[in-house]
Write a structure and sequence with these properties.
Largest sheet: 3 strands, antiparallel
Distance between the termini: 62 Å
Strand content: 35-45%
Number of helices: 1
Order of helices and strands: EEEEEEEEEH
Oligomer: single chain
Strand order of the largest sheet: 7-8-9
Shape: elongated
Number of strands: 9
Radius of gyration: 24 Å
Amino acid sequence: MEQTTIKVEGCHHIQLEGQAYYDERKYFMFTPMDPVPGMVTRMRRMTGVAQQMTDGTFDFMAQPRLRAKSTLIRKLAHGRVSRTKNGDVQLWLKISPAEQLNIGDTISREASSAAEAIREWQMKN
């Protein structure tokens, strides 16, 4: 098996030879010629930039998952009210028609509950 290990400014780079599979559904799979457990660190990413060139070369650059930068004020039955990184107050609600609720009434009740939570939060801060 041809394996090349390169150190680049604190980044450990391993280059492997193997077979790649790609189809029109945009499914991509790579199998090294000689799989060895532990050779590379396991990675699972849902976000990143994948690029396949017309000559068949393939790149994938994972992007870090962005974490919420808000502070929860109160969790609601169908959402949450929180303070954002820049100090704004945000109300987030999501109601599925499959729940067979009166969506307008549910939003009204939960917005009222969120308003009460915000008043309590403002009194403390």
